[in-house]
Amino acid sequence: GPVEVALLAADLKAGRAIAAVNEIVLDSNSIFGRTWGNKSHKCGGEEGEDDAAHAIFDALASSSVQTLSLGHTAMGPKASAKLAATLRLTKVTSLTISDNPIGDDAMAELLEGLKDVGLISLSISNAGVGVSSAGKLAELLSALSSATKFSGAVAKLNVTGANFGEVYKAGSLFFRVGNLPSGSGGLAFRNSCNMGDRIEGGSGPYDGECVVAVEQTTEWIKVGENKWLPKKYLIQIDTSKPCAFQELCEALQLSRVTDVDFSSCELNSQGIEFLSDYVREATGALNSVTVDSTG
């Protein structure tokens, strides 16, 4: 718990370790709050009020630790902010903070703090990565950030379970099913622009599902051969700017990342197309791209 971690921090800070400590792994310990047995439930835990364990971050500055793993420790916005403020003072090159309730905004702030850290490996899977933090990650990896320690060093990246929001191609006609009549879970395709011309046995997209139109009229969109949907049950998404996932893939193309994991990110076919472009046009020596259980 936090008390034991505080004692560990005191030992590290005082240099009482018999040998140089290069690696600290504290995974699946309730250090920063309560952890759940099911890591998928609310990112594995809930951050508490006790910040005694934050002392571990200050202690790292005077240690030789290069690998720090704090997966499934109930790290939340408070602990991640402290980590972001102190990590640049350490020798850490491998960081794991997966399965923690950090959240999208706090993760974006943490990533901003990592720009001056020469991390080689970063695992932030199932830690609330969303649109904001994906955008920040793309910014740090882009050519505009080539002078930072982070972009110049990071080679392994794990963002399993990230929620990239709507994944679309900029400028496309992209819609999300919504505004359905009460009790209706989906929308059936029509053969033409006629509500009565329903395709026999042809189920369509479910509530919340997204579709791309190849043609549109004032009241209808066409998504395929003889497959029409009424606009009154659709919400058009603004595609004037690239989506977060496209920006990230384009930044990765010019980065030094050699291994990346996008498992369980629920990517659609457009997301896979962006990944294909990344793999095909990567300027670095790409070793592996993992997309298990992604859609």
List its traits:
seven-stranded parallel β-sheet, 15 strands, alpha/beta, 295 residues, three-stranded antiparallel β-sheet
Summarize this, please?
The protein has 295 residues and is α/β, with parallel strands linked by helices. It has 8 helices and 15 strands. α5 packs parallel to α7 and α7 (244-253) runs parallel beside α8 (269-281).
Detail the topology: elements first, then pairings:
Blueprint: H1 2-14, E1 23-25, E2 33-35, E3 45-47, H2 55-60, E4 67-69, H3 77-86, E5 94-96, H4 104-113, E6 121-123, H5 131-141, H6 149-153, E7 156-158, E8 173-177, E9 210-213, E10 215-216, E11 220-224, E12 227-230, E13 234-236, H7 244-253, E14 259-261, H8 269-281, E15 288-290
Parallel strand pairs: 1-4, 4-5, 5-6, 6-7, 7-14, 14-15
Antiparallel strand pairs: 2-3, 8-9, 8-13, 10-11, 11-12
Helix pairs in contact: 3-4, 4-5, 5-7, 7-8
